[in-house]
Design brief:
This protein is an alpha+beta fold and 141 residues long. It has helices spanning 21-38, 41-47, 64-73, and strands at 2-5, 10-13, 48-55, 61-63, 76-92, 95-108, 111-126, 129-139. It contains three helices and eight strands.
Length: 141
């Protein structure tokens, strides 16, 4: 949403109506990368569903709250993220799978490493907006 200002009045416009579902999901993932790098909690709250679960490359589950805690505590810090591919596949009007890959620079407990991941995310459209509800990561060696 953004506010369009004129001399007469301020009008709030929902940007999601101007973009296709595929464009909205692309934007969601781009916003997500920026939010992870910045540890931007309000954006992370918007992007990841309340019931979000991620399984990492070792099969360990974590929640949205776990992700936010790790980022805000400094336990994990994303220094840089580069998407190297993304395919959006719609299963229904309100459900899509996102298959992708990325190259990240990550600091964990003060140690910086370069990692490559392939991922599958499930996104749902709830109350008119897309959110990420599940992620599965696989590390690419």
């Amino acid at each position: 949403m953004y506010t369009k200002r004129s001399a007469a009045a301020s009008v709030r416009v929902d940007c999601s109506m101007a973009f296709t579902d595929e464009q909205q999901i692309e934007r969601l993932f781009e916003d997500g990368d920026r939010a992870l790098i910045a540890a931007n909690v309000p954006e992370l709250e918007r992007i990841y569903a309340e019931d979000y679960v991620q399984h990492d490359e070792y099969g360990r589950p974590s929640t949205k709250q776990d992700l936010i805690r790790k980022l805000t505590s400094g336990e994990v810090r994303f220094v840089a993220m580069k998407s190297t591919g993304r395919l959006i596949r719609f299963l229904r009007d309100d459900v899509a799978l996102v298959h992708g890959s990325e190259e990240d620079q990550v600091e964990r407990n003060g140690k910086r490493e370069f990692v490559r991941y392939a991922y599958t995310d499930v996104v749902l459209k709830r109350a008119g907006r897309w959110e990420i509800v599940a992620s599965q990561l696989a590390r690419i060696e």
